[in-house]
Amino acid sequence: xxxxxxxxxxxxxxxxxxxxxxxxxxxxxxxxxxxxxxxxxxxxxxxxxxxxxxxxxxxxxxxxxxxxxxxxxxxxxxxxxxxxxxxxxxxxxxxxxxxxxxxxxxxxxxxxxxxxxxxxxxxxxxxxxxxxxxxxxxxxxxxxxxxxxxxxxxxxxxxxxxxxxxxxxxxxxxxxxxxxxxxxxxxxxxxxxxxxxxxxxxxxxxxxxxxxxxxxxxxxxxxxxxxxxxxxxxxxxxxxxxxxxxxxxxxxxxxxxxxxxxxxxxxxxxxxxxxxxxxxxxxxxxxxxxxxxxxxxxxxxxxxxxxxxxxxxxxxxxxxxxxxxxxxxxxxxxxxxxxxxxxxxxxxxxxxxxxxxxxxxxxxxxxxxxxxxxxxxxxxxxxxxxxxxxxxxxxxx
Length: 397
Hints:
The protein has 15 helices and 14 strands. It is an alpha/beta fold and 397 residues long. The strands form two sheets. It has an eight-stranded mixed β-barrel with strand order 7-8-9-10-11-12-13-14. A six-stranded antiparallel β-sheet has the order 3-2-1-6-5-4. The longest helix is centred in the middle third of the chain and has 40 residues, at 139-178. Residues 1-19 have low confidence and may be disordered.
């Protein structure tokens, strides 16, 4: 699959209401100043032009997103010099009357100026027209329109940069997905009562360029509308290893609230034993509507899938997740476990969370354990499970 084919799978980033509104306000100001009926910006493409912004005083058969052949209308003629930029009365100009849109819309007076970007490239045109002739239009009006066209060009250039940035991100994500990334590594989670492996956390690793942490890849995928696809790909790869792991161990999979709310997880997980699956929701995942998330999780929990809250103790969000979602597993963030044997405040916080878990029937997993002293302290506090480099690094199967 080529880069062009990949980009066919991604829609161009739409402009936000604020971004589009800046250009729309300029169009309206100019249209009202000139006393004309319609103002629009058209973007020239290879074989056609698209109306990106339209402002009108009344109903006209012209809307943002409409596409015309390049030869249709006035724009190409104005840019090439075949038509003047200022036409007070189209009925007095045979070349204007030869344009089908003149009687069709109708167009009685017309003004148009080209829009050039800072590098000199022609973007398209800024046009205004009225249904009736307007002998009061002047060259001064045309000059003012050129000034407004420069303002529009600045806004459009900023928008184009955002679209290019969006497309670059989408292409990077699609390319790593095409390469069947991410690859999955498994980190053991130990039962501290018998020091046997209770489960495995699945972690994603990317080898694509640029080199950056997995959370950045997933964040970028979400920004361009590919977050759920990338998550499903990673989860599918993780689940492929379940059959090779000991049958009395579980698989802990990181998952965003957006993917849960989409309902797609039911299909992804349906062929796997639910009692061996845990969904981890991170502290950093923003939840706007906990009721909807609870409803979306319910069919999975009924089947036997457990829910874990990751990074507990790292911030306020994790505590809200715990209180609202009533997780089966609470994972203590490594910021609590690191040096817990030497810091009474960490011990106090971890002890409180362990006591909370005991009261609510949740299971504690302490993350990031790196020393024997940390492990011993967590055992004394009553932590049920632990993972970290001391116990086992994330490795491929």
